[in-house]
Amino acid sequence: KMVDAIFRIVPGVLKEQGKAKDPWPNVDAVSGALLYHFGLTEFDFYTVLFGVSRALGMCAQLVINRALGIPITRPKSVSTEWLKSKAKPASAA
Q1: Please, what's the b/e burial string for 17-33 (b: 16 or more CB within 10 A of its CB; e: otherwise)?
Q2: How far apart are CA 39 and CA 53, in angstroms?
Q3: 20-66, pLDDT tens digit by residue?
Q4: What ranges do the domains of the chain cover?
Q5: Burial of 6 (0-12, 13-18, 19+ CB in 10 A)
Q6: What is the rounded distance in angstroms from the CA atom of residue 55 to the CA atom of residue 58?
Q7: 9: Cβ–Cβ under 8 A, 6 or more apart, which residues?
């Protein structure tokens, strides 16, 4: 409920105060509330977890793109089926 209220209220307040042009929160805006809910109350660890998750995502993308022989990009969305079709040998396609 709190996260929902923040998403509804805070962007308008920030715009009124001139603090941000586009204050819409990204996906990481909810992570603090979720971490706290699940028992991680040491706030100093939040930034570390955010950084580690970004690094793991980048490493996973690097491995997949090396396997497919394509450069690292920032796709909006790639399905597992698309990855499977690209990973099949040319003779199996």
Answers
A1: eeeeeeeeeeeeeeeee
A2: 18
A3: 777 666 666 778 888 888 999 998 888 888 889 889 988 998 898 88
A4: 1-41, 43-93
A5: middle
A6: 5
A7: none
